[in-house]
Protein 1
Amino acid sequence: MKKIIMTFITGLALVTASMSTMAEIQSLRGAHALDKPSETLDKRKQIKQKDGFERSYKIQPPMIPHTTEKDRISLKNNSCMKCHSEKNHEKEKAPRIGDSHYIDRDGNKLSDLSSRRYFCTQCHATQVDADQLVENDFVGAK
Amino acid sequence: MGKLKKWCSSMVFVGIGVGVLLWGGFNWSLELTNTVEFCISCHEMESTVYQELQETIHWSNRTGVRATCPDCHVPKEWTHKVYRKIRASNELYHKFLGTIDTPEKFEDYRLTMAMNEWKRMKSTNSRECRNCHDFASMDLDKQDERSAERHDPHVWEVEDGIEPSLTCIDCHKGIAHSLPEGWEEAVDNDPLLSAGLEALQEVEKE
């Protein structure tokens, strides 16, 4: 009998404790009602910036100063190379892909874009005029 | 004599009636084959190039104007249209042969098909592009700086009535469908398609 009462009391204490913690936890939706549609974010367009963005640190892959919505990188073709390749960059007045992009993982210099550098958007990103997620006073290295 | 005259005049009316029916029927069926629905009724078109088109600006854009298959691939003028339709019998032949009936076969054949279309465009001075895109109504001030800069000499060629040095398709390849593998080399090695492109290289370098 004593055992049963003890178990009951412990159980009650646990339930009370967990309920009080639950009250502190808040959903990521905040106080937004469950049956309401989620808040929509402002639509942002990809930015075009003449002469490109400045780098924030020394070896930063340059950010893309134009839209790339219509560009496609596939197994057969890389549409970035229409302008940025060795062959086309002068005609298109576009920056040529860096020398490092011709070197394979064994350090051999290739005549064409190395396969490990093929997926441009892995390092180079388009930009939108977005608000800062967290207020900060970051200044890039000059 | 009176009987013959009557017969003749009735034959004329019958002839006109039959003519209108045949002519109308011919043009009606011609237009029936000039729709997206007709084009994508073959899976060869529906599962490949049609899907690619849907990701491009010719499919969806700010102003909601859409270009579909026949707008670019079939001439608008009647004689050119009928000529193109007759040429299309070759495409029917290959449909029955099954030349491109799998995605793999389509990819193997993509360069050949693209080259055919580019050559057609180049030899007609990109006639189908110009059904909608007319230099006379193109406002270069509203374009991106680099686009305007590159269009400018060609606008003046048209203005001055000079033979165009380049045509739309020379630069605007792969705008509605994926580019075939090895297209750049293929274009450079083709005498028709590479014509005028070297001049561009030099002009832009200056």
Protein 2
Amino acid sequence: MRVLLVEDDAEMAQSLKASLAADDHEVEIAGDGELGQSMASTGGYDVIVLDRMLPKKLGVSVVRELRDQGVSTPVLILSALHDEDHRVEGLNAGANDYLGKPFSTRELLARVRALWNGRDREPQTKLAVGDLEMDLLARTVKRGGKKLDLQPREFRLLEYLMRHSGQTVTRKMLLENVWDYHFDPQTNVIDVHISRLRSKIDRDFAQSLLHTVRGSGYRLEA
Amino acid sequence: MRPSLSLLRTTTFRLAVAQAGVVFAFVLALLAYVYLATVGQLNADADLLAQQEYAALDRAYGEGGIRRLNQEVVERAARQGPLLYVLAESNGAVITGDFQQLPATPAVGVVENVDFNFERIDEEGSAVRGRARGQVGRLLNGPILLVARDLGDSALISGRITSVLWSVAFIGVVLSIASGLIGSWLATRRVEALAATAHEVMGGNLNSRAPVRGENDEFDELAIAINGMLDRLQHLMQVSRTAGDAIAHDLRSPLTRFRQKLEAAIEAPPNSDADREALRTALDEADNVLNTFAAVLKLARVEGNVTWRFERVNATNILRELVDFYEPAAEEQDRSLKGEVEDGLYIHGEPGLFTQAVSNLIENALKYTYAKGRVELRAVRRPDGRIEIAVSDDGPGISPEDRDRVLERFVRLESARSTPGAGLGLSLVAAVARLHKGGLHLRDGLGGHGERKGLGAVLVLPAMSAS
């Protein structure tokens, strides 16, 4: 996957580039907003990772102008200002995801993958991972043809995991996308929700679908 | 010492001077009017009378010559009345008349209007001074005739009126200037009191406050506004000062441990498992430091002058979802979390901050309650129209004297010292409450453990109507 990294802090840029390269991405770096924008509009990248505070042009303006030009490459904004109003501003400008600094490298990698996998997806009414099936219209879940009884919140959690099946999904991604919470709970709340969900979808079956990725999060995979 | 405001430079004094000018101009206009209405009228009457009398005597002279004229003058002068007569020869020597001088000796055929002072001897033989107005003219063949009206009392009256008006003008001007001086002196004193406060604050005494007299006047209003501003500034300064100290204090320990772990790892013989473990703990310490920073920044933004985009927030939904979110974790930790949330609670606010504030309260309660402990979230609309969200536990609670202190930024009771980040959670809730024009209070909680009463954290926010 070709990733454009627009980041003015050279040391940070090199370190992120190394991490992304280790995750099999081809990375190019732009050191300011104007260069980033011109590279983004011509370079044919798969994902753009954009710092919010950039010399010459702010990240939010870069996204807005790219979208106005019709460039639909998924954009992830990185920001030291991780507050509700800034996040909303970034997303309204056309960014697809917003990650506050400091973040772990695994978090960034998971989100870059999620952006790539989430692009140009047709609206679906049915999801399936192995013998686990979800009907989004009937709001039902079956595994091996057997109906599973899920709470509404468990249903949305599973839906998100199924939409990102095969990828690592971090706790933070679950918090933001399933609960729309943008703070870090001090306790292991997400893990408990996952273990409850796991007991419903995996307990009576030989093959486990919901895996824990140590240090990162979870992955639903057949 | 700072020079005090010069009285003559004050706005009030300048206004008073302008007012004195207006009073003076008004009195002048009044004077002119009264003069015309009294003195002017008197003079016009006198002129007319004298003119008619002169004409009558001129006719008598034409009919009977100097003899007849002399006779007429003697007769008329003898009558009681305000008219005075003098008949003189062509050289000006008086033949007969009320007094001995002529105010003018006109040429032949000329009649002059005159206004003059005279002196004559009255019936008792004493000299009488007076003022008169009339006509003097030289008749055919030379004799001079004067007919005048004695202005007498009426001149006196108009003179008095005039002098009274001048006095009034003078008193008016003096009073205006005096009241202006007093007014500006009073105003200056109030302004100087405000200026003195400002100078004291500039000099570093942030506790100084402008005096409020309780008269509800514009100066009180200004003083109250200035004091409010100073309170806010002082609070912010206090907050940033405490925060600076506390951040330094809170970051020092994790950074020291961080450094010590790294140093130990370098000193120790290479051992990849131990090195990895050292790096992992170092990473945790770094995260602690960064989390503390993030919490401080967030608090600063909530307390600072950032304009948050407020919207209509369905508090009922958010509260129920929070209970739903934390309930499994609570159960996992052998605690119970129950929610009792009224339908249709809405607030005007920032949903993210509101959610985080309540989640802080829930996490706090879960953290401090015991195994098998209970945490309850109750949200109701109070009769006064405000929404009360109470998160209560049956943990150790906080003694009443510590309750105010614990809401201050970074203050953390000794018992909680070892818990990272615990100093900021309640301060953030309190700051979010203030941002939403509400408040956070602490009270007894659910009780149940003997002497321990637990803790109830009560968030009170203004409600928005359900529709």
Protein 3
Amino acid sequence: MTELTKIFEDGHIDTGQYERIRESESNRLFSIHWELRTILYLGVLLLSSGFGYLIYLNIDTIGHQAILLGIAAVAALCFYYVWNHKLPYQNQLIIHASPFFDYIILLGSLLFALFIGYFQYQYEPFGSHYGFLVLIPTLLFFYCAYRFDHKGILSMAITGLAGSLGLSTSPRQILEDNDFSDLSVVFTALLLGLALAAWAWYSDRRSIKKHFNFTFQNFSVNLLSIAALSALFGQDLKVISLAVLLVICLYFIRFALQQRSYLFFLLPILYGYIGFTYFVFYLLSMTDMNEATFFVGLCYVIASAIGVILLFLNLKKIIKK
Amino acid sequence: MKAYNSNILFNTSVKRKAENWLAQKLITEEQFISISNYYNTYSYTPNIFVRIGLFIFTCFIVLASLGMYFLLFSSGFNTGSGFYEITSLLYAIACFTALELLIRKKQVYKAGSDDALLYVGLISISLFIFSLMSSFETDSPIVFFSSLLPILFAACVRYADRLVTFAVTVCMYAIVFLIVQNLCGTFAKLIMPFAFMAFSAFLFFQLHYLHRKERMHYWHSCLALAKFVALLILYASGNYYIIRESGEEFFDLHLLPGQDIPLAVFFYVFTAVVPFIYVYLGLKNKDKILLWAGLLVFAAGAITFKYYFSMGHPEITLTLGGALLILIAYFSIQYFKKPRHGISFEEEQDADSFLKTNAEALIIMEGLKQESPAIQNDFKFGGGQSGGAGSGGSF
């Protein structure tokens, strides 16, 4: 028995609808939308990294200026196309008619960043101020992200903004590359995270590109929590760090409940739990360690985990309020 | 035999289809709501992120209780004989008892906690087998895999879990590998690829036959996954790189410069042609599993040829490869803009894309469902793109 016959036999639809649905199910088109888009995306990534590699290898040879010119020409073509096919700006989501639009603007932006990087390497217009160097493509990315409504470029822009402040935000490098034992790095990360959260809050209230909020909040929650956690692990100000972390987590949990967003519910709970558990074990480690402290620690893990599970299980009731 | 009630699971699938039909405007909102209220589904199947959270914290509990057990019953690390066997067996029993109770009393289905208990239980059983084997002083892998296989298979049949299905498939391939290696001796390296191909093809067609049966509904996702794995291994067992490297790894095949593996031409052709066959068959039969497997092995084949016939210019390969992919995508999109041969570039109007744009409205509706059926009837959520404001709601 299929799903269709079941609802038909249970009397939810009439014969005409039954026939129509059966007809549409058997004539259903096979969509390869996401497969082709993925191939297109991979192509853009390979092409831009191929260009980057090409410059890197030929940087001191005769041909490098020709290559550079080629890249600039391709980037210019991309922006020319985008400029001629753009739709008027609006605060709501903009859907461009051509499926290629998003990828052309992405390619143009990637190549522009490449071009600036090369320019700096060759002529050093900004000397050793790498922050400025990253800031120029970042500004362009922010403009493109808002003007042409592109979440991918928005992520690149936020990464660039963090980079110009000397921070890494990619998930793999957020811990490796950032030296959180330096208190000023922690403060920079906290400030940037706060700024992103504040902008997300403001643009949500003013309805400016509300669909970008997910990206802003996602960067913000990870940056803030990891900075606070690193301060907790690495610095001596345990109580203050823990308090900051818990405030951050509470803010995002409240936000998650407002937005009914499960991801923003999970992340602060995980971060908060890690911080709190670290603190409990830190306190336990100050006592003289024996089997009893170990036992207390295990009891804490079991009890707290049961608590979190109950919280998750009753999430629907909490969200409904 | 089935841990979860298959009628209830079928109801879930009815609801999902109804969502599709609603998105395609084949049924009305009133009908959709009456369908949603008519069929009961598992009371607790949470969002993926809640599931991850429940999984992690259930693992914490399970591991902490193991720690507590050790603290209470083992005196240091100097434990008597049979301690690890008994511990792992007791632990497995505890996990499965908890799992069964959770499913029966709490009506959970794929909620994270049940997954965690299932996996930890199965890992305990494998540790039990392992420690039992070491107390009998055998370390024959074939004994291990063949005693593990029936247990994994039973768990797969009962709980219809995809990760367990994957473990069953791996276990079967391990047994095939060990049998061929033991039986064929020095010829094993010649026979192995063909044994794997034959076994994969056999497995694929069996699974494909079962997958189309209505009565196998309970295991649909498991069968789909196993089919996918069988297709990938079918390709891998004839891929030139894998044959050559595994020959050196497992069968003491040492090639001198200028030498090539036996039947090299066959494996080259296999590496190059099979991806096209997969993609073609996937498109022809409108089979996403074949299509995805085809795209994956296409990339694998391209990398294989790149590896052996490299011109030493990765930058040119990258650039040309990228340009080629863009061109392929461009012409395919242009070609399939109008539906041809029943294939279209048009995004499917199904529940997934529907949920993406209307997530918030649907979640709000879910929240209102039990309390006031009257409210939902007025609730409008079919508004196409306007739902874009709800982005992030589904996450």
Protein 4
Amino acid sequence: MRLHTGFKLASTIAVTALLATACSGGEASTTGEDDQSAAGPVDLTFWTWAPNMENVVEIWNDENPDIQVTVNKQDGGDPAVTKLLTAIQAGSGAPDIMQAEYQKIPTLVSSDALADIADDVDDVDPSIAEGFPEGVWNAVTLGSDAVYAVPQDSGPMEFYYRADVFEELGLDVPTTWDEYADVARAVQEADPEKYLGTFSATDAGWFTGLAQQAGASWWGIDGDAWSVSIDSEPTRRVAEYWGGLVEEGVIDNKPMYTPEWNAALNDGSQIGWLSAVWAPGVLQGNAPDTAGLWEMAPMPQWDSAAPATGNWGGSAVAVTTQSEHPAQAAEFISWLNTSQEAVDALVSEAGIYPAYTPAQAGALSAPPEFFSNQPDFYELAGEIAQTAGSFTYGPNVNVAYSAYNDEFGRAAEARSQSEFLQAVESMQSVTFDDLESSGFNVTE
Amino acid sequence: MSILAPAPPSAATASAPRTLPRRRGGEPASVLATLVLLLGAAYCLLPVLWVVVASTKSGGELFSTFTFAPSTHLLENVSDLNAYRDGLFWRWMANTALYAGVGALLSTVVSAMAGFGLAKYRFGGKKAIFNMLLAGVLVPGVVLAIPQYLLLAQIGMTNTYWAVLLPQIISPYGIYLARIYAAASVPDEIVEAGRTDGAGEGRIFRTLALPMMLPGLVTVFLFQFVAIWNNFMLPYIMLGDDKLYPLTVGLSGLLNQGASQPALYTLVITGALLSIIPLIALFLTLQRYWQVDLAAGAVKA
Amino acid sequence: MTATQDAPTTTATSRRTTAGRDGRRTAPYFFLAPAIVLFVVFLALPIAYAVYLSFRTEQVSGLGLGSGARTQVWTGFTNYAQALTDPEFLASVGRVALYGVIVVPTMLGLALIFALMLDSRRSRARGFSRISIFLPYAVPAVISSLLWGFLYLPDVSPFYYVFDRLGWDVPSLFSSNLVIFAVANIAVWGGVGFNMVVIYTSLKAIPTELYEAARLDGCSETRIAWRIKIPIVTPSIIMTFVFSMIATLQVFAEPTTLKPLSNTISSTWTPLMKVYRDAFIRGDLYSAAATSVIIAVATFALSFGFLHLVQSRAFGQEK
């Protein structure tokens, strides 16, 4: 199969794949249309959890009576993958089209859940890959010739803060992590009820983004073997830093996304949030009364000379191996994620930050409503997005993330810096052992 | 027998007067006993009261005003919920009623037949069959859900109404109760008399035993109804299409999505309130059937 | 049952008698057929399948990408050995044991007290209390855990609001020492009403004559409760004990719903949560199946003694 041969060639350069060649198979572009006319009206099901996705799909359905897409709303990224994998195992019950977070793609490919749609996508738009940032495209090809999904949105991380409270307390926006720590101390000193932020042991994706910013890439492909490098210098540095702040008590240790955290955002006891570009939507839903009080800035840096950020969240849309109409499904997902019309609708309906660069300018002309006080919001976001480092996900991200929850939950509860470092070691060994015992080729 | 037979869950028991007439206020009220009951009631009502109050709040107020301070947004919340994806919530409500209503009805019929068979006949393998059926109580639903899914997928029945309906018809608990009711409320003499009149066994069951067991079977129905109404794991695994979801799965989905869209919290809370109203109504109207005798035979002994 | 051997009554024709006897012989199987068929299809087969899976495992080859990279193989008792030596699993078993020690006596004790008070002629507000205490039974565990979660979190909880005003420094219920009580409370809240109804039902079945005499002799209500009522409802209490114990071993929904609210509930906090994590988060159905089998066998072993005892009592009288 082209996957295997292609994969071995590409794997050595997995992180910096040569994107242009990945999609250069020049086949006749008529096959897709032939399939469509021969098959007549086609019904496709689409599992997604993006808010209001059904309204975007509506546009497609109106324009394409021959390819009708039905949205099945899912609980979220994890439950949807769980159900998809169960359906794959059972041999039936999977949808045609599936939204999947980037970190889930290796797992899904490894379970043979995602179809390789390289040829179908190529038929629609041979230069589609060029429209995506390198790291993002790499996440859907896994560095091979195959294309397992079309990227939808990305989540470059940024620093959100209550500009009014900062002013009141006479604080400067931190640009380095050292400054961030100083500001955290100043905030606590000024008002012990207030925190600059919290270390959330329930959001593995958040910590992954922080590690990515520091230069970590937790998995890698080394020849025909996986490598796991969670317990590496960048991750240890991040864990040590946060463990120190939590132990000192200047940063909260409660999880994000709880009613309590929501209340803290509302009443101004959490005055900062290291989040991603989609944060305005969350803040708006959570603390509508604080509109106009927040501002966004680049992440604090480890090295001001080489600004970097990580990604938190972001997903792609894939065609499953159980779909009987992969060509039509691929046509739909290409439209959904790269046409100006659909991207505009995704931005306005679902509030996403589109991954497809050519459509960004048109869709993101105005700042989010909640940040109308920061007119250059998306310009700044676009600059920040350029600084995202690359990060390779492995086939057992789920195991690593669940280990993160357990190990860092314990460490955060104990408020102990040494336990934060211990947690990194445990994540490494749990993740490595799982790969090894499943039979993957794996090197230390 | 007639004196001691408890006729477990029947209306007769509920309304059976104690032999001494009870005069209202005849006994001095015990402050302690009343206080204990009221404390228990307060403990049980507190979270329910919270839902009622919370469902009157807007999304922002939910996290910013005092927990038990009511607001005025109830109607807004209900209409938001009503508008959510073209009234999907009501579809979930209807689905739940279907799963619980039809499922509990079929379950009661199956349990009644099995309970009658076990209580009124002697036959080879009776003890083994009963023990086997009862052992079903021991297997957690979480454990069964995946194999059930994989097996139903073989015949292409996942993601259909059947996938949720069929597995919940068998209720070891219902069979256990039905056996107790049949043993306690259907006298052998009546069964014998039916046979003497030449009625077949099926006819005896339908026309003689069933009416006698009926009050008890209402209880079996109600318990199975609540069990299906509250079940989460099975529909969660079986269904991919949110138009087939029952309330539990639908609301928990909203809750999970609420993590990134907190506005959905108010929908979940309003939905939770609306979803327990039908059960409260059921409790109040059928109050006298809410009686379970897990060990009727023992009382007789 | 002696009736089956009785000679036919004189009015019956011999033909009808034979038919009746045949009918009587096949009838129980007919009555049980639907239950047995459903049991086999939806319980026995899935259980057998789970047992089968528990002896299997999946081997991945190479990078494990693409179709055909995974194959299912026999693995003997490896999954069982792994589960039984997994410190996380053993910790979760210990936790559930402690949880059971907290929940079952508290819940049944409260249920018994409430049932006795409901049965007492001297208490007031009985109807209101009965329906109120039973009400939580109507609330699905997923929802009730959400409600209590809101009431537990110090920054949104009305209790902590009051504690704060009083100047008390009450530790968070989600701290590692207290979280088990937080979960137990939800279970007690949800279960006390059901058990109260069970016990109350058997209290009502007691013929009043039994204690009218005692009452005339001047026995206090408390004495009547201890000497007459409680001994008579003991079988019901044993049954509620068994069912509560089974439910305790299967605790899952409450801690799972509370988990994202705190740092202290791990993904293997209870044995069933470990099953869930293995099956759904790690995609390892095989370990999950082995752990499930262990849980089911343990539940069976624990409850068999009680069930056996009660069953022989409950159905001892039946012919």
